[in-house]
Amino acid sequence: MSMHERLSMTRTEHGNRRSSSSRLWSWGRRALAIGAVLAIVSVGTAASAQESPGTPDEDDEEVGGPLDEELDNYWSVDRDVDVIQEKLYKREGRFAVGLFGGLMSSEPFFWYTPVGARADYYITDQWGIEVEGMFMGSVFRHDTDLTNFLQDSRDNAFTTEEDTLDQFQWRAHALAVWHPLYGKLAFLQRKLAHFDINLAAGFGAVSVNRPDVASGGARSGSSTALEPNFVFGGGVKFFINNHFVLRLEGRGNLYRGAMRYKNKELGSRQVSKPATTVDAKELNFIQRLNFTADFLAGVSYMF
């Protein structure tokens, strides 16, 4: 073997040995780096475990603190919710006094603007007793268009005292009042209004001025009569505050009207009294019943 070949073989072996040691060194550095990273991660995990010890259940309870309690209250079925359950305004055992006015327009010859006063005592929140009186005579009585027409067309032949039926003077009642419904509503989304719906019924008396009828059928003047009166109706009460109440009501009244007669032959009813009972007969109590309607608005004070 020549010298040149020996030198070439020596260089190849030397190069192979250098390449192998380079690869070993590279793998060593990589292993060292991986070991360092694993060591850092292990140290960090141990440190966090020392800072927050406890079981997983305890950690779950502590995470969030007060926020967890708020979330529990929000999602819980048994959470406390602020609602208005009771009536804000109580009536049981209280008295009330008030004033009112209104309109009565169910008479053919007159329409009225009655004014009156009332007093209440509430046995419970649902039941109460009411006494009221209203005045409808004099300046509170107004002629209808029919009355004006008859006065203009017949001149002195028609007078309201002798040719009309009853003219109301005053009315007084004692009623039982039931308040079955109580509610609340938002007025213009600004104020919470409390109200109730009530029903009322009772008895009383009405004073009327009605024409006098002579035995021959002619009317001569008028006189005052006092008749029993049955009243019924309903209304709405709006509570302004704990003492003042706004009241809106509609009332119907049944009372015994003036005596009239039924013509036996024609079957028609007439006001004039017949000379004999052969041609006509008097109407009974049921047939004489008249109905009037009142629409009232007022304010009451509870104490």
Protein model, in words:
The protein is an alpha+beta fold. The protein has two domains: 73 residues; 208 residues, Beta Barrel (Porin), CATH 2.40.160.20. 26% of the residues lie in helices and 44% in strands. The relative contact order is 0.11.
Compute the separation of the termini in Å. Answer: 137 Å
Q: Into which percentage range does the β-strand content fall?
A: 35-45%
> Share of helix among residues?
25-40%
CATH architecture of the largest domain: Beta Barrel
Oligomer: single chain
What global shape is seen? rod-shaped
- CATH class of the largest domain, please? Mainly Beta
Helix and strand element order? HHHEEEEEHHEEEEEEEE
Question: In angstroms, what is the radius of gyration?
Answer: 49 Å
What is the structural class? Answer: alpha+beta
Major sheet: order of its strands?
1-3-4-6-7-8-9-13
What is the count of β-strands?
13
Count of separate structural domains: 2
CATH fold title of the largest domain: Porin
Count of helices? Answer: 5
Mean of residue pLDDT values: 78
Q: Give the biggest sheet.
A: 8 strands, antiparallel, barrel
Uncertain parts: none
Short structural description:
The protein folds into two domains: 3-75; 95-302, Porin, CATH 2.40.160.20.
